[in-house]
Design brief:
heterodimer; A: alpha/beta; 4-stranded mixed beta sheet; 12 strands; disordered N terminus; B: mainly alpha; MetI-like fold; two-stranded antiparallel ribbon; 17 helices; 2 strands
Chain lengths: 437, 326
């Protein structure tokens, strides 16, 4: 029996066991490294007949719809699409490290600043060659959304959806309400709804992003698209009286919003519209997903946020657009080009829309005959818009919107009177964030 | 090399090596006989692997995040790391509207945990220590919240506090327009609402710690004090509680750690919205996800580290010094 220096006797068999354990641990640690590096993408994509694709569409309906598009592509071209689906939020949160490691050839992403950011960081490949083929399929507004800051194309849009004020036709008919087209009409309508025992505007801001939608609408109606865009890009001061005016308008409307919104999700807020307790709801057209009963869904309608400043009218529509990008070093370049060209066709969009009717095709060539009335209206609204915005967190730096604007807007909603100090605080934080990198 | 290893083998050591000064070598050889080469390798592994893992996973990462706290970095490529000195801290202390509330909430969290669930846990432990009937059932019931993941706890309590369909508002009729009690959103209420959930869990944790401590109390102490005519409260106050001092140390340290690392419950509850900001959530919001303000988030992490050290180190030093003296 051997003695260790401390004098403890170590029985040999157990020590050997320990040694084995240590060896095992070392083996595990060794095995962990290739495992980690394998997380990023699949190695099989050097095969010329396969294109790998990272997808964030983890919900059942879009996942199936996307799968149908890829199946149709494989049938047409003989190239297999190897899909790697991740949970929607996880995909978004890991996007930085994902794109730096060994990403899939193609990945799903959003148009606007969020796309341009990765393009500028050289984490995406320009696809001007693809756009030479598909350019004719898209309206100018979509082309603008697909370009990086360097003027090259980086993005192929698939579908889009508008933000607007949603309401029930039957409720408006029952009370004899008219769709408001100006700010004063909207305020009057809210007053009337309150008198009639309805919640004028359904609202839930637990997830912190819905409030950004309301800010966007009031800002581009009041100050115009150009100012909104430049404010989002950090080029205007948040202490500007124009921004203050946005919050003044919002304060006027706030008493007509649903109480207790800080603890309510958008889904719960949508339920008040479903149950006809609320008159209107300012949200994206995905609110329709909450209308599971066909009769309720047919009763759903929407109108554009009313005009505030006659100089701008209702010329801007907030229409977040989802689509595809190519990662920095795709392994199968030809296959990727073919896939992107296919994804930019009206055909691919129609396959998607068949499965998900809460959105509309990004292409102006897509067949609109199978659209529901709601989709038709959304399509008209978007295609007639002079300018399209994406949404605050897609038009601005994500670090700014998530760490400054989300808590900032929630603070405003709870204490609308403290807007002056809030805006100077936002401006100070904005300066440091936009100054870095 | 080969001659060196051969002297290290026990066989070689057993044979007296040729050459002068065998006396000088005898002492180290005698020591070597106890440690064969295999022993050395084994010990090397046993000490080396944990040390390596510890250094890599604890020290390197901690020091790296301290270094990053003085930079700005968006997490894309190492060449985008920029040295900014104390800027992150300056911004944090002067411009960040969430920072001071977060510090305050972490402190409130600790005070509440130590003031309510800890005595309550001690009380429960004392009751359960009396060998009452179904003691095991009660123990399990009170300990269950500790076993359940905090994320699940957060989810369950969120259902209770939901403004429209939650248990409380439905029972007291506070889910109608004009009567809303927004437990999750109202910044004057939500911290307390979430602390009730945290206390609910912490009570069970403290109960188990104290119960273990009480099992270690010598029964003869109790007997002696009752022979001396002390009543139950006097026995507890003057005899039992003082003997629980090691448990109290553990309880205090555990509670401080719980208060500083509070995260999951609030994150599930309302993602640390106004009223429930916590340092851990600020760190996560800044570092994880697309925002990737890694330098700035690291600065908050450093503040949290300093607070932890400032609280834990003096207390542990004092305690161990006292114990060594005793």
């Amino acid at each position: 029996m051997d003695l260790s220096p401390s004098g403890l006797s170590l029985p040999a068999p157990s020590r050997r066991g320990l040694l084995r354990g240590v060896g095992g641990a070392a083996l595990l640690a060794g095995a962990g490294i290739p495992l980690l590096s394998a997380c990023g993408g699949s190695g099989s994509s050097s095969d010329p007949k396969t294109v790998s694709l990272g997808s964030n569409s983890s919900d059942a309906v879009p996942k199936k719809a996307f799968a149908e598009i890829y199946a149709a592509f494989t049938k047409k071209s003989g190239i297999k699409v190897d899909v790697n689906t991740k949970d929607h939020n996880t995909f978004q949160e890991q996007i930085n490290s994902y794109l730096q490691a060994t990403p899939d050839d193609v990945f799903t992403w959003f148009a606007g600043y969020r796309m341009q950011f990765f393009a500028a960081k050289k984490l995406a490949t320009p696809i001007d060659d693809v756009w030479q083929k598909i350019g004719g399929n898209f309206p100018d507004a979509m082309k603008q959304l697909s370009k990086g800051e360097d003027g090259k194309y980086y993005f192929v849009p698939l579908y889009t959806y508008p933000w607007a004020l949603f309401y029930r036709k039957s409720v408006f008919k029952q009370h004899g309400y008219q769709v408001p087209t100006t700010w004063d009409q909207l305020v009057t309508l809210c007053k009337q709804m309150k008198k009639d025992g309805l919640v004028p505007i359904a609202f839930g801001d637990k997830d912190a992003w819905p409030a950004m939608g309301t800010f966007d609408q009031i800002n581009f109606r009041l100050n115009g698209y150009d100012f909104h865009k430049s404010l989002m890009a950090g080029k205007e001061a948040w202490t500007d009286p124009k921004v203050k005016a946005v919050f003044d308008h919002w304060s006027e409307l706030l008493p007509y919003h649903q109480d207790g919104f800080m603890g309510r999700t958008w889904q719960d807020a949508a339920q008040t519209l479903v149950s006809k307790k609320a008159g209107m709801y300012m949200l994206g057209s995905f609110v329709a997903q909450q209308f599971t009963n066909k009769a309720d869904l047919d009763d759903l309608d929407f109108f554009a946020f009313p005009e505030i400043n006659s100089q701008f009218g209702q010329d801007t529509v907030e229409a977040p657009t989802d689509g595809f990008m190519v990662s920095k070093a795709p392994k199968n370049h030809d296959g990727v080009t073919k896939l992107m060209e296919y994804l930019g066709t009206p055909e691919a969009e129609q396959i998607y829309l068949k499965a998900d009717s809460s959105v509309v095709a990004a292409s102006s060539k897509a067949d609109t005959s199978s659209y529901t009335p709601l989709q038709k209206k959304a399509y008209d609204m978007i295609s007639n818009a002079k300018s399209l915005t994406q949404f605050m967190d897609r038009d601005s730096r994500p670090d700014f919107t998530s760490t400054v604007m989300q808590p900032g807007l929630q603070k405003f909603l709870q204490n609308p009177k403290g807007v002056d100090s809030l805006l100077s605080s936002i401006e100070r934080q904005k300066k440091t964030i936009f100054a870095s990198s | 090399m080969s001659s060196e290893t051969s002297t290290k083998t026990p066989e070689a050591a057993a044979v007296p090596p040729p050459g002068p000064a065998p006396v000088h070598k005898r002492v180290p050889q005698g020591h070597k006989r106890l440690l064969t080469r295999r022993d050395r390798i084994t010990l090397g592994f046993m000490a080396g692997v944990p040390t390596l893992l510890h250094v890599a996973l604890v020290w390197v990462t901690a020091l790296a995040s301290i270094a990053l706290a003085f930079t700005t970095w968006d997490g894309i490529g190492f060449d985008s790391i920029k040295w900014v000195g104390l800027d992150n801290f300056k911004q944090l202390f002067t411009d960040n509207p969430q920072f001071w509330p977060a510090v305050e909430h972490n402190i409130i969290w600790f005070v509440v945990l130590i003031a309510i669930p800890t005595p309550l846990g001690l009380f429960l432990a004392v009751q359960l220590d009396k060998k009452i009937r179904f003691s095991r059932v009660y123990q399990t019931a009170f300990f269950l919240p500790v076993v359940v993941s905090l994320a699940v706890t957060g989810f369950v309590w969120q259902l209770i506090y939901n403004p429209d369909t939650g248990l409380i508002n439905s029972l007291i009729g506070a889910n109608k327009p004009g009567h809303y009690i927004d437990w999750i959103g109202n910044p004057h209420l939500n911290l307390w609402a979430v602390l009730i959930a945290a206390s609910w869990r912490h009570t069970g944790y403290m109960m188990i710690l104290y119960l273990a401590g009480l099992k270690g109390v010598d029964p003869s102490l109790r007997e002696a004090s009752s022979l001396d005519g002390a009543n139950e409260w006097q026995t507890f106050k003057n005899v039992i509680f003082p003997t629980l001092r090691p448990t109290n140390t553990v309880v205090l340290v555990v509670t401080i750690i719980e208060a500083l690392r509070a995260f999951d419950l609030v994150f599930v509850f309302n993602k640390g919205a106004q009223g429930t900001e916590l340092l851990s959530i600020l760190i996560t919001n800044n570092i994880i996800g697309e925002s990737s303000r890694i330098g700035y988030g690291s600065a908050i992490a450093v503040v949290l580290l300093v607070i932890s050290l400032a609280v834990i180190i003096p207390y542990l030093i004092a305690t161990f010094r006292k114990e060594r003296r005793a």
